[in-house]
Amino acid sequence: MFKELDISVYTEFIKTYLVEKGMIPFWASAINLAVTVLILALTVLFFDIILRKVIVTSFKLFSIKTKTSFDDFLVQSKFPRYIAHIIPLYFLKYSIPFVFDGYPFFLNIFNIAVNVYGVVLIVKIIQSFLRSTQKYLRTKEKYRDKPLESYTQVVMLFFWGIATIFIVYQLTGKDIMSFATLGAASAVILLIFKDTILGFVASIQVSVNDIVRIGDWITYNKFGADGFVTDINLATVLVQNWDNTYTTIPTYSLISDSFQNWRGMQESGGRRIKRSVLIKQSSIKFLTEEKMEDLKKIQSVKPYIEHRQREILKYNEKIAADKSVLINGRNQTNFGVFRKYVNAYLNENSAVNKELALMVRQLEPTSKGIPLEIYCFISDKRWENFEAIMADIFDHVIASVPYFDLEIFEEPTGADLRSLAKAESSKFKAES
To answer: DSSP label at 333?
Structure first.
């Protein structure tokens, strides 16, 4: 199109005029070139501004009328602005040979610059489109917890790699993929981008194996992370802790180290309670007839005491046990009845999920007493509600202990030691 017109008549107009006025041809050519480049730059810039306003405005108006939000994300990611640069770049690309006709050095430099800018512009358009796609998919429930940022970065890493090859070729005229340079380039890439490569591999494994999703609650003691995953990208995983601070974890650490993911609990039917009450061993005793009659007043264990006592009496009669000594034969203990009481209490508690494991068990005795462990699951898995329900359960259990003539172990306090010293002192004075 340009060759059909005698462009040189217009590009050489200033030079011809200055030579006719007596200027040296060299300076006339230099001034002509400078003015022509300036006019071309202003023309392309003006053309670019007009096109950008027209295309961006038109795209915004179009996105308002459509029901989908995808085009809104395209506008936010500057996709129309990048598209608007294509036509001015195309115009500049085919104007340069006529402007720099007779100046091969400048022609080569400007051609390289335009080609490099064109490659970068194409990559920016692809990046804008991918980011818009990522944000759009994030609005869909199906993809809300997927590490879309990692996928986007992996794809962009591929395109930037291809762009780098083209740019190096434009700047040096040498193919970066030649065998002579491939080894050295690989060594440099492995050294400089070690963490990126590790993150790239880790992102694929995290995604394929579904190790972590956005929204998962994870605990990673090595990095001090305890909270919800808010973002997963190629290099890092961002965790918002319970105190609203943020912790960044290298993505490759998720496959090289051990951490705790609470997703199983979140997706299950309840959140586990596994906590013990320490019962003082010296307070455990056999139940007498009088004490059993008192405990029968507790409605939830009355059926158990009566049923158990019938079995015990039958057995003791069978072996002719001498019950003048309480230890002979079989007996009920206050600790055993208390354990059944706690079990019955948990089964009557509406907050406890009865479909999951539920037990009250006695653990191995320790120097601080016998642990009575409560093992059950709370249906409400929200942290605040879970803690409140667990506190209510243990408030009740601890308050129930004295009714069974049991004691909870506690370390002696200063007041206990002073009371003991005072008692010993009074005893000594009385004896003396």
So the answer is: B
**Candidates 3.30.70.100, 3.40.50.10540, 3.20.20.70, 3.40.50.300; CATH matching 268-285+334-432:** 3.30.70.100
Cα gap 393→387, rounded to integer Å:
10
CA distance 59 to 198: 40
For tokens 């770049």, the residue is 89
Domain residue ranges in the chain: 1-144, 268-285+334-432, 286-332
Torsion of CA 25, 30, 36, 42, to 10 degrees: -160
Residue written as tokens 């795209």? 59
pLDDT in tens, 327-381: 999 999 999 999 999 999 999 999 999 999 999 999 999 999 999 999 999 999 8
Contact 281, 365 (CB under 8 A): yes
364 to each of 271, 286, 332, how far by Cα in Å?
25, 20, 20
By the 10 Å C-beta count (0-12 exposed, 13-18 middle, 19+ buried), 338 is classed as buried
**DSSP symbol at 352:** B
- Using alpha carbons, list the distances in angstroms from residue 202 to 4, 101, 190: 58, 53, 16
Say if pTM beats, i.e. exceeds, 0.70: no
> Is residue 228 within 8 Å of residue 222, measured between CB atoms?
no
Provide the 10 A C-beta neighbour count for residue 332. 19
3-state secondary structure 52-72: HHHHHHHHHHHHHHCCCCHHH
Q: How far apart are alpha carbons 164 and 167 in whole angstroms?
A: 5
pLDDT tens for each residue of 367-380:
999 999 999 999 99
What's the rounded Cα separation, in Å, for the pair 300 and 296? Answer: 9
Cα 30 from chain centre: 60
Burial of 104 (0-12, 13-18, 19+ CB in 10 A): exposed
- In the numeric block, the tokens 């996928």 are attached to 151
Instruction: Say how far apart CA 186 and CA 58 lie, in whole Å.
Output: 45
